[in-house]
Amino acid sequence: MSSSSNKVFIARLLGLDVFDPLGDRLGRLRDVVVFDRGPSRPAQCVGIVVEVPGRKRVFVPMTRIQAMEPSQIICSGLVNLRRFQQRGAESLAAAELFDRRVSFKDGSGNGVVEDIGLERQRNGDWTVAEYFVRRGEPGGFRALRRLARGERVLVRWDEVVRGQTQEPQAATQFVAANEELKPADFAEALHEMSDKRRVEVATELQDDRLADVLPELPDDEQVQILSSLDMERAADVLEEMDPDDAADLLAELSHEQQEALLELMEPDEANDVRRLLEYEENTAGSMMTPVPVILPPEATVAEALASVRREELSPALASTVFVCRPPLETPTGRYLGVVHIQALLRCAPPEALGSILDSDLEPVSDLADISEVSRRLATYNLTSLPVVNHAGRLVGAVTVDDVLDHLLPEDWRTHDGDDKLTGGRAHG
């Protein structure tokens, strides 16, 4: 394996593009896998985790890394496109070792790992050579004279003792290094972690970020993370979630837990979620969002376009404006029809919505089952449908992504389907 240097730091590798020998992009480096060989030997780097198209993360052994440059990584040979699965004594450097607490063997105190230096040995293996550590509270008079609190130092691997994996571990470095990831991609990284580390990283996120990431995780992992939060913070996170996602998560909890959290939520947000929880599973009412874009017929095209530009709206919800008589909060006054975004783009800004209304789109009942909803969406090539109650009042909208979430198998977020193999996983 060739490389411009015999030493690299992992934090600088994260996010780099990985190419095959022909120059085709394989994916992006998301983590480095190291193997613990005991306290008397440095940990060995056995491979990298690459995110390939389709958000799947695969393992590429170090024996197939041809070059590691400041701007790219080149691999050679065959790569196994099965989803990466962590093994026994393996650790993910960015996900599990960054932010790990260490103590200095010279008795000078404790610190936290911020980066890890890898060094290539004469036999071609890469091992952990150094830790870049942010010092914590100094541990003695000599250290107090020599180093200020919070100083960052580079130390050899054998000059520190890593903390036990059972100890609480911060996740500041990991969260900062992956802040650009989309919620689904961040959730994929969380899913691959141990239960303990998943909770540590998730609780480090801001409430709004955690609210976006949680719905992308399997149900049991959502419950695990929410249950790890204190009740008030859990309620804050639920408030930040879309009501239908919050209702789906609360449905996995006991009735007592549901009520305790709903009581801590703001009344308006809690009421939206309560209404969804009243519906039977797999009905339009159980999967809809109760807060689509709703305007009166007197509203103009310009007002409608401003409403659908809101950043928090999903593409499916932003594609349709639902027109109703006041009141405009669900359940609304009488449902009149919809205006699709294409119509908004074709019409003059002062045009009233009532004059360009599509009144032929029949709403579905809030009690309709998922098969009827999916047939209607497919028949008319729609991304969303209005949902009304027995009185003809709009109570929400169901989108195609809501339906897919309910139609796909429960393990769809972690199931690969057919793997296309181009080799096998090997450590050396």
UniProtKB/TrEMBL annotation:
Single Gene Ontology MF annotation: magnesium ion transmembrane transporter activity
UniProt xrefs under Gene3D superfamilies: CBS-domain, MgtE N-terminal domain-like
A single cellular component GO annotation: membrane
SMART domains named among the record's database cross-references: CBS, MgtE_N
Keywords: CBS domain
Cross-referenced SUPFAM superfamilies: CBS-domain pair (SSF54631), MgtE N-terminal domain-like (SSF158791)
PROSITE patterns, per database record: CBS (PS51371)
Pfam families registered for this protein in UniProt: CBS, MgtE_N, SH3_actinomycetes
InterPro entries per the UniProt record, alphabetical: CBS_dom, CBS_dom_sf, Mg_transptr_MgtE_intracell_dom, MgtE_N_sf, MgtE_transporter, SH3_actinomycetes
Residue span(s) of domain CBS: 288-355, 357-417
UniProt-listed PANTHER family: MAGNESIUM TRANSPORTER MGTE
Record protein name field: Magnesium transporter
